[in-house]
Amino acid sequence: MSCTTATGFSFSKQNPALRRYSQRFSVAMAAYVVTILMAAFYASKGHTHGALAYMLATLPGLAVIAILAAIGHYLRDEKDEFLRAIQTEALLWSCGITLAVATSWGFLQMFTDVPRAPLYLIFALFCFVWGVAAAVIPRRYR
Amino acid sequence: MKNKLRELRADRGWSQADLAARLQVSRQSVNAIETGKFDPSLPLAFLLAKLFNAPIEQLFQFED
Question: A77 Cβ partners below 8 Å, 6+ apart?
Fold first, then answer.
């Protein structure tokens, strides 16, 4: 997952918005990994029905919401308007490309025999594109 | 927008990092504004004017 990487900037450690974001992101990402492992372990024992299975399978999605909330809080808290503008544009690129790829692949799946892509990969794609965009966009301003 | 930030900054012997610290923004922001690639918000432009003790239109010139 590349959400924390490649901003293209040497952020100051004194940037409180970024420090809070790092803390929130780390906790949410740890929860994401742990809840996936928990759900995978439970499913691997053959438990794919029932309230507990559904609850465990819901938890990684909640962790994703926490990661997105951390990103939202960062954009709200970042006082440096230039950095905020870059991250906002990077996120728009990420949303746009992710939506376009996911929807296009959905139609391919519906009308052709391409392999079925697991939906959970959409978030990984979102993070990847964000990381790339956040690294590329600052080059325009050098 | 054109601007005279680089000259005004040089007059005072400040580096980009010095100006960034005074504005409480990143050095990258100062560079992007100086090179005319990023237009600052009105509050940041006024802050720059205050810092350089100059009217805002001396710092920034609108280009048609």
Answer: A16, A17, A20, A21
Taking residues A18-36, what's their average pLDDT? 95
Q: Is the CB of A80 less than 8 angstroms away from the CB of B25?
A: yes
How far A96 CA sits from the closest chain B CA (Å)?
A: 23
Catalogue the E-assigned strands of A34-104. none
What is the DSSP-derived secondary structure letter of residue B12?
T
Note the pLDDT tens digit of each residue in B11-62: 999 999 999 999 999 999 999 999 999 999 999 999 999 999 999 999 999 8
User: Which residues have C-beta within 8 Å of that of residue B63, sequence separation ≥ 6?
Assistant: B1, B2
- pTM value is 0.85
Structural domain total, chain A: 1
Q: Residues of chain B whose C-beta is under 8 A from some C-beta in A?
A: 24-26, 28-29, 31-33, 35, 37-38, 40-41, 44
Domain that holds residue A31: 2-141
pLDDT band at A14 (very low <50, low <70, confident <90, very high): low
Best residue of B16, B23, B28, B47 to probe chain A, by most A CBs closer than 10 Å: B28
